[in-house]
Amino acid sequence: MHRLPTWSKMLILALLLLVAAGFELALGPMNIPVSRLVPAAVLYFHGVRTPDAVVVGAIRLPRLLVAMLVGVGLSLVGAALQAIFRNPMADPGIIGVSSGGSVGAVVSIATGVASHGLWVSPLFAFFAGMLAMFAVYRLGTVGGKTSIYSLLLAGVAISALCGSVVTFLLSIEPTQTMQGMLFWIMGGLDNSSWVTSAMLCVVVGVATLVFSSCAKAFDIMSLGEEQAEGVGVNLQQMKRVTLFTSALTVGVMVSISGVISFVGLIVPHFMRMWVGPAHRVLLPASALGGAILMTGADVVARMALSPTEINIGVITSLLGAPFFLYLLRRQYSTIVRRR
Amino acid sequence: MPTHVELCRLAEFFDPYGRAMANLRKGEIVMARKGKQITIAVLMGAALAASASVSGSAYAQSHHSIAYAKATKSSSTVTFPLTVTDEAGNKVTISHRPVRIASVTEGTDEILSALVPIKDLVLVTTYGKQPAYSFVASKLKGIRGISSATAEGIIAARPDLVFLASYTTPGVVNQIRQAGIPVYELTDFNSISQIEQNILNVGLVVGKEPKARGIVAGMKQRLRLIAKAATSGRKPTVMYYASPNYVAGKNTTMNSVILAAGGRNAAAAVNGWQPETAEAVVKQNPQILLFSQSDAKIAEAMLHSPKYSTVAAIKDHRVFLLPDRDTGTVSQYIVDSVATVAKDIGTLKK
Amino acid sequence: MTTLEMREVSYSPGIKRASEVFESGEFVGLVGPNGAGKSTLIRILAGIWRPDSGSASLDGVDIGLWKPRERARRIAYLPQSLPEDDVLFTVQEFVEMGRYPYRRSLGGMNRADSAAVSGAIHKLGLDSLVNTPLRRLSGGERQRVAIARCLAQQTEVLLLDEPISSLDLYYQIDILRLLQSLAKDGLLVVVAIHHLEFAAQYCSRLVLLKNGQIVGHGSPTQVLTERNMVEVFRTPVKTYVDPLQGSLRLSYGAPTDSD
Description:
The complex is a heterotrimer. By secondary structure, chain A is an all-alpha fold. Chain A has helices at residues 6-26, 34-45, 51-84, 97-110, 120-140, 148-172, 175-186, 194-213, 215-221, 225-230, 235-257, 263-275, 279-303, 312-338, and strands spanning 141-142, 145-146. Chain A has one domain (6-338): ABC transporter involved in vitamin B12 uptake, BtuC (Orthogonal Bundle), CATH 1.10.3470. Chain A is built from 14 helices and 2 strands. Chain A has a two-stranded antiparallel ribbon. In chain A, strand 1 and strand 2 (145-146) form a beta hairpin. Chain B folds into 2 domains: 4-52 and 230-345, 3-Layer(aba) Sandwich (Rossmann fold), CATH 3.40.50; 76-222, Nitrogenase molybdenum iron protein domain (Rossmann fold). Chain B contains 13 helices and 13 strands. Chain B has helices at residues 4-14, 21-65, 106-115, 151-155, 170-178, 192-205, 209-229, 253-260, 278-284, 296-304, 312-315, 324-328, 334-345, and strands at 82-85, 91-94, 101-103, 121-125, 145-146, 161-165, 183-186, 237-242, 246-248, 264-265, 273-275, 288-292, 319-322. By secondary structure, chain C is an alpha/beta fold. In chain C, the strands form 3 sheets. Chain C has a 6-stranded mixed beta sheet with strand order 6-7-8-3-9-10, with helices on both faces. A 4-stranded antiparallel beta sheet of chain C has the order 2-1-4-5, with helices on one face. In chain C, a hairpin with a 3-residue loop joins strand 1 and strand 2. The chains are: A mainly alpha, B alpha/beta, C alpha/beta. The A-B interface holds A 28-30, 49-51, 54-55, 57-60, 115, 174-176, 179-180, 182-183, 188, 190-191, 193, 302, 306-309, 311 and B 242-245, 269-270, 274-280, 282-285, 292, 294-295, 297, 305-310.
């Protein structure tokens, strides 16, 4: 596999995504033959509202889009954070952006400001996610050095703090508001629509542009700050840009699909092993991989107990948690060996 | 006077893009509710009259025709001390007829209000004291309320009998028992027949068994009236939808309410309360959608979402909001719930 | 003609009021015991650390005022720490990073970039390793790759922190000869170096540091005096001239405890 040229690996990923997308579009409680999928979508866009047309055009397609965009966004953010923190365990969930973002979303619902517009919750999630990430970064940085373990510990502490804020808000809110909040925490793709897809398209597009333009700097930063400074990487600027873009992307994603853990951790890490560490290749591969993972996980989430839906965050966590432990273990053993 | 459905159609005619629909639809919902409340009053009046005029025979009839396995004893007068097995399977011994009762479930708040003198209640739930969630809020004024079942909060009321639900933390139940206070645990609230059983069980342990039988007989009487009045042959499919995306499948209170009201549960493929995808709702295609009033926003959103545009209930604007206390009740007032739903879904004409 | 100048530079902890002028064509060795401030001085000259007081300037412009990319087109810096042994990048990819200050954020390598990279790889004798990931290389090979990356930057100034510390004899001499020839071609090369005899043999000038202060500069024979060796390195030496090479040699005695 290692001998495969990069373009063929990309082709394989693209094909896998196509297969996953095919399953996502073809499977569902409604039994729509594969041959009717395209006509149904065409009908929907011509304003025809038959059950098949609506299911394909208004439910399955936007849901597929949201799943893929969230996968792309999470993986890109994961790859970028892993580069700037020089830490294969950095992940929007682990360094506090997600939990901060969920506090923001929940606060906006609890205070009622969320009802002022579709952008309010994402905005709150963005600022709170940014704040939490900054807190983790500051707490994890001792004497100008960001160590893996202090970062992880700070992430755990801040996430726990955010978790308790959310729990507190849940406990003082009336039942119906609470259920709305629970949704943010659990995450889910069922309220996907063309509008949320468009919102995601914008932020994920921004993240793609920003991170692509940082690809060369990420390569160098992943080798250490001294190396990076020597060849003229503007470290402070890179960190600021990356953190800001990550918080924006994750904030919006959290407010649309809730917290979805581990995708941003597993995908870039796995892709680094497969396509190598160069971000010029790693970023697009991670984007494709994230889209595949999220789409696949959503197929399982929707179909395993159909018509009931399993929370997609549960599926990604089931996959991700053991992987995370494996990483931690490996990281630890290399450190032990070095000493 | 045009019906709310006609109003909405009219609005659609003038505003094909549906932008002005929100307010009108709210209007529709309000109107539907007003109509409903009137019906409730009418129905309740009818039921009361019926039960008053035929109470003796109804009581006798229900006593004969229905066997209550757990609660029915050979004699109708209970003597204390009384030892029973509660619904969780624990033996409970009650030394005297309880006069300081702690009710820590919403269902028992409503059941006990009808069984024992209010002065015998020393603790109720805070929900039981809120008019939005309780049919007996006005009765329970002045009684101490508790929002979550903590052992200390319950013991502090110095009760001589505590009613708890099976979802209470086992530790709390044990602590109260260790304090020497008998605890009666109720386990199942998921159908009308189970609620009737609960009423009889509660009646037995508070020494009010005949009264409990009377209440249950009244319920059955009203349910029979509703069933009789309900248009025969045409059973609409009904879905009860709750935030964020849950439906009431089989083995839920709402399921048995829908059935008793003469509908079919569109989500019968689901067991219990489960989240459901938009696509499954489209597939199950309910003719009527029911929501709790507090989920009005979700109902509103579904009315406007293209995803549900083919669902019969949405197309025909047959979306109804039920008062929160109707959707939450697990006591004799479940019959009011049934009447409300029967009116909403159109099985019950005026 | 490039001039790199420090004026009254202080940096806490490490450097006290150090002044020195370096000019293109020089191959300067910074010598001194551990903790004398060699690495700190190189970082300040590279613009990575800003001095607390005083200034470091390149052709009269304060280095702190340069944008990182502009600075990296004129000054290349080799950190003391080698790339770690878990680096998955290949030699080619790693050396290409030296072109970062020239490349646009999106876009590939142009002809000049490729020429600079392959030239640097060739100069360090790494042609056969271009597609090998760094983690498969020995410490010495990784050191050479890191130097190649600096050369790929095509700067007028090379600042190298202990460039030969993990090399074997062959490559120590090879690298020093390479740096010497680069200086002859007009580059300014400054290295921190522990190997005093090699420093004496290849460097055109030495700067001697002790406790963050410059205590001597000039030709190797002017700096590595028997008195300086005792005072700075606490090691008595006899100096002599190598009869074969004509360069300065040291004959070491037992270290002293006196300062």
